[in-house]
């Protein structure tokens, strides 16, 4: 299946000092299936050039903008040009480069959320569906081995039909008005023209929503949202609570905040079924707790022989050797690459390889944002969750 030639990346965004750009690169390059050969790293050509120098790239393949990158790369022989475009820009620059990359014949890996707004998401959905290229949306937390173990255990009926899901995502980094203090991350993430109309719920609430559906295997059918602005002067939400109903009758409580003072990044999910329950949290990500009504609780650990195929396919180190956030990214990129290689060889990818987030997850995430905003403004509150495509 594998080719002797690595998949070549052209990166959009990820300029000097970028947090998420460096994380994406570390994850993508970890398994030796990708190599970075080109990029348009910043809207500022000088900064793009600087980042290209830091990454020791050929200066002729460091571009002033992504339009130039697509045009120049297509002039190269097929064996030399980029294969995959990785987009790590703010949300308002997701739609246009993704569409142009797909139309140019490149695979795309895109940081979440899918687009700036729901209208763009619906248009992009059909473009991706009509493309022959692979599309990855990096909902990172679905890459953790023990999250995959939880998903597989639930799918296999180990805890019975799901009854209740709790998912919480507490952060505290926006506890004060950092956007007024020159903090670039805070500035764009709290600007509705760049981030979108949902703040906290668009940024990290979408992760919690995706995890709730991914792990439980159930789809949301209705929701009721309450959004808050806890820090005076902020134009969009920085805290919120969402009640959700699943198609099988299960209920969910989702909380997300970026003003939980002192909180770091401890995304947590608990799923309870008819026969047992499962608990996972990111700050102890190698552990999954299983709870039973008639037996002691079990502590399941990554890297052990008793786990299922989804976890084993995404585990890199023996038990007791910590894996983490970058490895979760790497798992998504490795599965993405394996599927591209399989496609090229005319082979069917293993189901475990195709277990990465894509356009369906993306449009459901944007529908979540849209419905949360509608519910928050509505006196009726409970809003049917209908995904328009």
UniProtKB/TrEMBL annotation:
Gfo/Idh/MocA-like oxidoreductase N-terminal domain boundaries: 8-137
Lineage: Bacteria, Pseudomonadati, Bacteroidota, Cytophagia, Cytophagales
One matching Pfam family: GFO_IDH_MocA
The GFO/IDH/MocA-like oxidoreductase domain, residue ranges: 148-279
GO MF annotations, alphabetized: nucleotide binding
Identification of the protein by name: Gfo/Idh/MocA family oxidoreductase
Cleaved signal peptide residues: none
Coiled coil: none
């Amino acid at each position: 299946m594998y080719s002797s030639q690595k998949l070549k990346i052209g990166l959009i965004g990820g300029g000097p000092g970028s947090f998420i750009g460096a994380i994406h690169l570390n994850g993508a390059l970890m398994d030796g299936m990708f190599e970075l050969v080109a990029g348009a790293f910043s809207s500022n050509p000088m900064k793009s050039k600087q980042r290209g120098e830091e990454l020791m790239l050929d200066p002729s393949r460091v571009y002033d903008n992504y339009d130039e990158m697509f045009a120049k790369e297509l002039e190269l022989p097929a064996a030399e040009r980029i294969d995959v475009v990785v987009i790590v820009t703010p949300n308002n620059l997701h739609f246009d480069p993704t569409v142009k990359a797909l139309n140019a014949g490149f695979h795309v890996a895109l940081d979440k959320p899918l687009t700036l707004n729901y209208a763009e998401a619906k248009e992009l959905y059909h473009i991706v569906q009509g493309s022959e290229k692979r599309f990855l949306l990096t909902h990172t937390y679905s890459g953790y081995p023990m999250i995959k173990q939880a998903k597989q255990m639930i799918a296999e009926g180990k805890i019975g039909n799901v009854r209740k899901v709790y998912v919480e995502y507490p952060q505290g980094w926006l506890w004060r008005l950092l956007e007024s203090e020159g903090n670039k991350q805070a500035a764009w993430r709290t600007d509705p023209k760049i981030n979108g109309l949902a703040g906290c719920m668009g940024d990290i609430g979408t992760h919690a929503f995706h995890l709730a559906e991914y792990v439980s295997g159930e789809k949301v059918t209705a929701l009721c949202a309450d959004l808050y602005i806890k820090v005076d002067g902020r134009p969009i939400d920085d805290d919120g609570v969402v009640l959700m109903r699943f198609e099988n009758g299960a209920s969910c409580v989702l909380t997300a905040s970026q003003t939980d003072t002192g909180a770091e990044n401890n995304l947590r999910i608990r799923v309870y079924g008819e026969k047992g329950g499962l608990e996972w949290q990111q700050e102890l990500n190698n552990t999954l707790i299983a709870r039973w009504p008639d037996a002691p609780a079990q502590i399941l650990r990554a890297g052990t022989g008793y786990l299922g195929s989804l976890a084993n396919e995404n585990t890199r180190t023996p038990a007791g050797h910590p894996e983490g956030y970058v490895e979760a990214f790497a798992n998504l990129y490795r599965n993405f690459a394996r599927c591209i290689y399989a496609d090229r060889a005319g082979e069917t990818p293993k189901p475990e390889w195709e277990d990465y987030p894509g356009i369906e997850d993306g449009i459901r995430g944007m529908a979540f944002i849209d419905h949360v905003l509608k519910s928050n403004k509505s006196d009726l509150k409970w809003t049917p969750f209908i995904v328009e495509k």
